Amino acid sequence: MSEPSPTPPHSVLQEAEMRRVFELQQQHQYVVARTSARQRIAKLRRLHDTMLRFRREIEAAVWQDLRKSPTGTNISEVGVVNSEIRHAIRHLRSWTRPKRVGTPLVLLGTSSKIVHEPKGVCLVLSPWNFPFNLTLSPIVSAVAAGNCVVVKPSEYTPASTAVMRDILAACFPPEEVALFEGGAEVAQALLRLPFNHVFFTGSPAVGKIVMREASNHLASVTLELGGKNPTIVDETADIDKAADKIAWLKGMNAGQSCIAPDYVLAHENIHDRLVETVAAKLKQFYGDTAEARQASPDLCRIVHERHFARLKTLLDDAIQRGARVAFGGKTDAATRYVEPTVLTHVPEEAAIWQEETFGPILLVRPYQVLEETIAYINARPRPLAMYLWSSSRQHIQYILAETRNGDVTINDCGAHFYNPNLPFGGINNSGIGKTHGEFGFLEFSNARGILRQNRILPITSFFMPPYRKHNRLVKWMLEGVVRWF
Ligand code: NAD
């Protein structure tokens, strides 16, 4: 028999540490839950200021992980998290205030209120595409609601994770917020612990695994997932503005964004003009020549070889099947570069129609009548975002009425993401639950209904057994002769 190893394998050590921190947070949860709005605001302020103090480190980390420009990082990472914090600070007192609710006649003599209490110990699993934004924003909501949090960022952005570890350690003790590093196996080990809530941002495929694992403990889940976001540009739209915003959002983060337009359904009368204008905008943003664009400091790289290979396969497959490259098409495996690309005439059987592109490749397809766009969108899983470009109120109303998805921006792209008063999230395949602002706070809270009986002789005591003596009263109630609600 061989001697047992003196040091257990790393994963066993890490799993023991996860359990230790989880139990620590479980013990500490009521201390955190008892904190006042003022104390939570102080924590959020600390996180806000620490983010600013770490700005240079954040910029360097996101450049290393995604080759993203420092200004881009300040807008979509530091800026987004800090505006989420400022919004929470402004509104936290009103969110946490107990809300009185009305009393039905039958409960005369009682008073009722709703108290939003923290769920307890929560798990946040985040993706790589906006590492700071999508890891720290849920933490803002969880902390605002008074929870303890364990967070595991993506294994694909190690530089960003290292900075986040320092930021969080500077703001919170581990019994309040703790970070674990690692990939799927670490996420799986964490999911085995009985968290009260799991907040997951990532792909629908992994979202299903997370929901299954969470169901072992009946933990509630928020699933922020992805999908193929449609953009409709009709014949009444402002083509220049539409092309500008489509090119901007598709180019941002090299299309590695859950709200990026995936495909455009363009009315046949403006289809060619739209394609030409999107191409012109991409040149304006990133350079006139393919070489200039590749050298542009404003174009991110694809996060990992695996994702680069997936995009290259999708692109080659579409072209082989007859798609036309209206713009771009250049790739470089060594630097994981994919040029912003516009494809037209992509045949229906191309693999790129079947999965979320999640890269800088835009598909444009003409339609003749608006009904076609509805049929096209509704034949696919419900998307996260949808963009409508039209100056026809009728067209907009028609599309809104006939489709379902997470959020819609009309005559702009992605703008809904930046309004903290709107719920952000998907439906079915694109997600379950909403986040941002108060919606994020609610996701991490349990709405506890509390009824207080103030009368000595409450009306409900009329309904004690034997029940047959109430037959007449019950009959009148059912017939509406006596109102009881
Ligand atoms: P992913 O699903 O591969 O990974 C997300 C997280 O899950 C990571 O932390 C990863 O380590 C973990 N994970 C991976 N496999 C796992 C497994 N088998 N069990 C448990 N955990 C596992 O997603 P990604 O590639 O990092 O991100 C891209 C996806 O995220 C896209 O689909 C995109 O649309 C979506 N997304 C959605 C939003 C949103 O807010 N709705 C935002 C950004 C990205």
Would you kindly provide a written description of the structure presented here, covering whatever features stand out?
The protein is α/β, with parallel strands linked by helices. It is built from 16 helices and 18 strands. It folds into 2 domains: 217 residues, Aldehyde Dehydrogenase, Chain A, domain 1, CATH 3.40.605; 175 residues, Aldehyde Dehydrogenase, Chain A, domain 2 (3-Layer(aba) Sandwich), CATH 3.40.309. The strands form 4 sheets. A 7-stranded mixed beta sheet has the order 10-13-14-9-8-15-16, with helices on both faces. Strands 5-4-3-6-7-17 form a 6-stranded mixed beta sheet, with helices on both faces. Strand 6, helix 8 and strand 7 form a beta-alpha-beta unit. Helix 2 runs antiparallel to helix 4 and helix 4 packs parallel to helix 5. The radius of gyration is 26 Å and the shape is globular. The termini are far apart. The structure holds nicotinamide-adenine-dinucleotide. Nicotinamide-adenine-dinucleotide (NAD) binds next to helix 7 and helix 8.
Structural class: alpha/beta
Please describe the biggest sheet, giving its number of strands, its sense, and whether it closes into a barrel: 7 strands, mixed
Q: Into how many domains do the coordinates divide?
A: 2
Percent of residues in helical segments?
40-55%
C-alpha-based Rg, rounded: 26 Å
- How widely separated are the two ends? 74 Å
CATH architecture designation of the largest domain: 3-Layer(aba) Sandwich
Mean pLDDT: 95
Q: Largest beta sheet: what is the strand line-up?
A: 10-13-14-9-8-15-16
